[in-house]
Structure formats: C-alpha cells, structure tokens
Design goal:
Shape: globular
Largest sheet: 7 strands, mixed
Strand content: 5-15%
Number of strands: 7
Structural class: alpha/beta
Number of helices: 6
Strand order of the largest sheet: 3-2-1-4-5-7-6
C-alpha cells in the first residue's frame, strides 16, 4: 500500500517488521551474524546487512523514507538498575547511542523516523513522543495513544523453547541465548501500529488485551 524504502536498525529477528508485508523495500541492519541469519530466513525479500547499526545510520540516513531504530536497551532498563543495586549485575554507564540517534534524527532525518526503547530507570534526556506499555517512542510524526496502555506482558514467561509471535527458534543451533532474542522482539502488532501511524492510518477498534496484542507462548 505504502511502497516505502525502509531502514530497520538493530533488527534482531524482525518482530517489529513481521506485519509490514512485502510491498516495501526494506534494509535490515543487525550486528550479530547468527541473529541476522534468522531474520533473513523469515524475510528473504529484505536486504540484510551485518554491520554496526549506529554507524550505518550515520552513513545512510538520507536514503530512506522511513527509519525504525531500536538501540540496545539493557543499560537503560529498571531491571539493570535493580540488578546493580542487588549485586546481580556489573555497573555500566547508560549507552548514549540512544540519545545520539534521537537528537541526530530530529535534526537531520529526511523522511519519517521512530526510535523505540524501554522506559529507563532515570528521567529521559529527550522527551518522548509517547509511552506505550513498556516502550517509549520518539518520532517526527504523531502517534495516537489508543488503548495500548493495557497490553498484556508475556516477556516474563518467555524461555528458549517458547514460540513467540510465531517465531520458533528450536531448529537453530546458535551461541546467543534464544530467550534473550525472543524477549528483545517488539510485538509485531505494535510494529504494524506504529507503521500505520507514520502513514496516517487511524484504526477505530480497541486494542484491549485479548484482541490485537494477546499472544500465547
């Protein structure tokens, strides 16, 4: 319908991209070769680039109609803060690439963009466009709230053997933890919703649990 040239950064196995269809020219950038291979299996029509997404954005931001970026969230999360205070995790500085990309895209993006991350354990340095469930979004287009704040959370129940959002990783022999890969997935319905918002599509139905966002693992 939209026929856009899309850049999907920190693509993982493609949770956010799953419902975008095949009418777009999509370039996915993922640093981990094993994870990039799983993405390529699921989306053979996409161009998959194994590279540093942060640097790729800097070199190619002019080339796309729509950019989605999901920088690593671990150093920003409340779980990290609690874990450090309890002695479970080593202390780490927040990864400032998140704030670099938001600031950069706000000033230099040629098309539409969205940056997604967790709600951090500290006050965000840049005010988000919207908060939807456990996600913050920064964008240069309006994102309507709808009823997305009532989304069911399934991530606590995810294990390496869980089939989540239709992704079954049991056939892949990889070094990376499968439960971590799955937990890092953005809900495909949420990915579609954000894409629709970028294109001015307004849905009338509710997004209450048990409908759009309810998935079993």
């Amino acid at each position: 319908i939209y026929d856009m040239k899309i850049l999907n950064l920190y693509a993982g196995i493609g949770g956010n991209r799953k419902l975008w269809g095949d009418d777009h020219e999509i370039t996915a950038v993922e640093y981990n070769k094993e994870i990039a291979g799983i993405y390529a299996d699921h989306f053979p029509n996409d161009t998959v680039v194994v590279a540093d997404a942060h640097e790729y954005l800097l070199q190619h931001y002019r080339d796309f109609d729509f950019i989605w970026s999901s920088p690593p969230c671990q150093t920003h999360s409340a779980i990290r803060e609690m874990g450090v205070k309890r002695g479970l995790y080593a202390a780490k500085f927040p990864d400032m690439k998140l704030w670099q990309e938001i600031t950069f895209l706000q000033h230099f993006a040629k098309g539409k963009f969205v940056v997604e991350n967790v709600v951090p354990y500290y006050e965000p340095y840049v005010k988000p466009t919207i908060e939807i469930e456990r996600h913050l979004f920064w964008s240069n287009f309006r994102i309507r709230k709808a009823a997305l704040d009532k989304v069911e959370r399934v991530h606590k129940e995810v294990s390496a053997n869980t089939v989540l959002y239709g992704y079954d990783l049991s056939k892949y022999k990889i070094k990376h933890r499968k439960d971590t890969i799955l937990r890092n997935c953005v809900n495909p319905d949420l990915g579609l919703y954000i894409m629709e918002q970028a294109n001015g599509v307004i849905r009338r139905e509710s997004y209450a649990p048990g409908s759009l966002f309810s998935h079993s693992g």
